[in-house]
Amino acid sequence: MNTGCQAEVLPDLSPAHALLSAAHQHPDRLSLIDAESERTFTLAQSAGCVRRLAWYFTTLGLSAGDRIVVCAPNSVWHFLIHAAASWIHAVSVPISPLLPEAVRRRLYDEVAPALIIGEEHFTPHTSNLLACLSFEDLNMLARETSSECPADFLPLPCHNETAALVFTSGTSGKMRAAQLSHANLWWASQCFRDGFEYCPGSAVCGVVAPLSHIGGFNGTSMDIFTHGGTVVVFSSFQPLSVVRGIEKWRISIMFVVPAMCHMLLNAAHENNVDLSSWTHPLVGGDAMGESLYSKMREAGLSPIHVWGMTELGGAGTFLSPEAWQHHPGAIGYPFPYIELRLVDPQGNPIDEAGHSGSIEVRGPGVAACYWGDQPRHPDEWFSTSDIGVLDSDMCLHILGRASRVINTGGELVSPIRVEEALRTLESVADCCVLGLKNEIWGQIVAAALIPTSDQRPSLRELRQELNEALAPWQHPRSIVWVDVLPQTTTGKVDISKVSRLFE
Fold first, then answer.
1. What is the CATH number of the domain that holds 278?
2. Helix, strand or coil for residue 420?
3. Does residue 373 share a domain with residue 465?
4. 394/351 Cα distance (integer angstroms)
5. β-sheet bridge partners, residue 132
6. Does position 473 have pLDDT exceeding 50, yes or no?
7. C-alpha distances in angstroms, 459 versus 433, 449, 480?
8. Would 461 be classed as within a structural domain?
9. Residues with Cβ < 8 Å from 16, sequence gap 6 or more?
10. CA–CA distance from 260 to each of 23, 144, 157, 446 (Å)?
11. Is residue 1 in a domain?
C-alpha cells in the first residue's frame, strides 16, 4: 500500500530531445536551409551538430543557468545553438546586432553572458565571460569535437528551467528581458499548433523576422525545427529574394509584419512569382488594415492575423481569414491555453461589449517574470499595457498601447483606427499616427504619411476625405509626408523617431 505522496512526473520538454527523436525517425529529411548560401542540414546533421556543440559548451566550462548570447544576423546557427544550450540547461539570449553598441553593451552587462557568439567581437565587462566566438569558429569546433563526445552524453530533461531571455522591443520604454522557461515556450508552441492548424513535422517555415525577436525566435520556427520540419532562414529582408525563396523552397508558413507583407506582395506581383505554397501567412506586430487584407486575398493568400508579446512567447490572440471578414480590424480571440480579460482603471473586470479597458492575460505560456525580478504567482494576471475593446461577439479590438492612446480635449483616440482610415485613401501608401503635446487640447492627432505618388494632398484635403470615416476629434491636425517610416530593429515603426519628424 502506498502511504506516501506520489512524486509528480513532468513531461520532458527538451528541444534537443525532440530533435534527436525526429532525427531517428527521419534522418534524411531537410532540417535547415540557409536561403542565401543554400547550405542545407538534414535532420541527422542538425542533431549531430547540436550534440557536438553541447559537448563543446561543457568543455568550455558552461553549465546550467549560464547565458549564451547570440548577437548576429539571422542564421541557421541560432537554431542549433538554442537546442545545444537546452542540452545542458544553458540559456539562449538572442540580441540584435543592429542595436547601437552602447545599447548592446548595456544588455550584455544586464545578462552577464558566459559565452558570446556573433560576427563581431568585443568584450563586455563581466567576470562570467568564458569566450567570444563567431559562426565560423562554431563550424570548425563542431567538426573537431565529433570524436571526443562520449556516447552516453545525453540531453538533460527540460521542464521549468529558464530556456531563453528574449528582450522586448522597447517601443514603449526600456528593453527588458522576458525570462521564458522551456514550459513557457512549449505551451506557446501548442497554442500555435492548435490555432494555426499546422503539422510541425511536414511544415516548411520561412524566417524573415529577426531571430532576436519573439516573432522569429519562437513563433512556429523553433517548434518546427525541433519536431522534424524544415526551416528556411533569410539573413536579411530583401523582398524579391524572399518571395523567390517562398517559390523555390515551397515555404508554407511564415510570420511577417504588415510593412514586410506589402513589400513581398509588390515584389511577387512585379516579378510574377508563385506564392501558392504560402498557405499560412501569419501577419502581426502591427495592425492589419482592410487594404492589406484585400491585397493578400487578391493574391490568393489567406492571412492569419496574430497579436502577441515577448512575455507571452508570442501567443496572445489570432484571427482566421474567415473570421476577419466578420470582424475587420480586430486582433481576434485568445489562443488555446491563453486566458484574456479587460479591466477598468480600478482593476475590475469588464464583461460588457463596447467598453474599453486594459488587456490582461494569463496561462502556462506567460513568462513568470523579467530577468532579475521576482516571479509572479501562476494565477496572477499579466498586464500587457495595451488598451482593447470587445465587440458583440467578444472578439478583441486593440486600441493601442496605453501610452499611445491619444487624449485630445478629453476624447480618447485610437491611433490604429485613424491609421486604418488613412490607408484607405488613394494618396496614402502607409502611415503612422501618434499624439503630439498641445497647450490647448492636451494632445493633437498627428500623422506621418507615405504617399502613393508625387501627389500629396494638403491637410485640409485629407480631412475632407476622412469626414465619413472618422469623428471630428479623430481627424489629424498635423501631417508630414515622408518617403519611409523609421523602424525599430524588429521591423516595427519607431514611434519615438516618428515624433521627431514633427519637430
1. 3.40.50.12780
2. helix
3. no
4. 9
5. 116
6. yes
7. 14, 11, 9
8. yes
9. 50, 51, 54, 83, 84, 86, 87, 155, 226
10. 33, 40, 38, 23
11. no
Mode of pairing for the β-strands spanning 30-34 and 230-233: parallel
Whether the CB-CB separation of 59 and 44 falls below 8 Å is answered with no
- Here the cell at position 487 is 523602424
CA distance 388 to 399: 5
- Whether residues 439 and 346 share a domain: the answer is no
Last residue of a domain, one of 336, 368, 398: 398
- Would you tell me how many other CB atoms lie within 10 Å of the CB of residue 346? 5
Q: In terms of DSSP bridges, do strands 369-370 and 177-181 run parallel, antiparallel, or are they unpaired?
A: antiparallel
Question: Do residues 219 and 185 make contact, with C-beta atoms less than 8 angstroms apart?
Answer: no
For residues 230 and 244, membership in a common domain is answered with: yes
Do 138 and 63 lie in one domain? The reply is: yes
Confidence of residue 17 (pLDDT cuts 50, 70, 90): very high
Q: What pTM value is reported for the model? A: 0.82
Q: Do 306 and 416 fall within a single domain?
A: no
C-alpha cell at 322: 474567415
Convert 131-171 into a string of H (helix), E (strand) and C (coil): EEECHHHHHHHHHHCCCCCCCCCCCCCCCCCEEEEEECCCC
Print the domain residue range for 442.
404-500
> Considering its fold, how many domains does the chain have in total?
2
Is the residue at 9 inside a domain? no
**51-77 pLDDT per residue, tens:** 999 999 999 999 999 999 999 999 999
251 and 272 housed in the same domain: yes
What angle is formed at CA 198 by the lines to CA 193 and CA 200, rounded to 5 degrees? 80
pLDDT tens by residue, 300-331: 999 999 998 899 999 999 999 999 889 988 88
Determine how many CB atoms are found less than 10 A away from the CB of residue 298.
10
What cell was used for 308? 502577441
Dist CA 107 CA 124 (whole Å): 10
